[in-house]
Amino acid sequence: MWLKNYKQKSKEHIVFDINNANVTEFYLAHIDFSYQKIMKK
To answer: HEC string of the chain?
Structure first.
């Protein structure tokens, strides 16, 4: 089994203010994901 060396990437922390909402949805995508490109399709 080959093991990769882990290299930590810089992270941007985002704070969400959900007010009185009791449900939130989060979608995980690659950092290079282009939402604009998908919307055009």
So the answer is: CCCCCCCCCCCCCCCCCCCCCCCCCCCCCCCCCCHHHHHHC
pLDDT, average across residues 11-33: 84
Q: Give CA–CA dist 18/33, Å, rounded.
A: 24
Model confidence at 24, pLDDT cuts 50, 70, 90, reads confident
CB 23 within 8 A of CB 16: no
CB 16, CB 24: distance < 8 Å: yes
Residues 6+ apart with CB under 8 A from 18: 24
Cβ pair 18, 24 in contact under 8 A:
yes
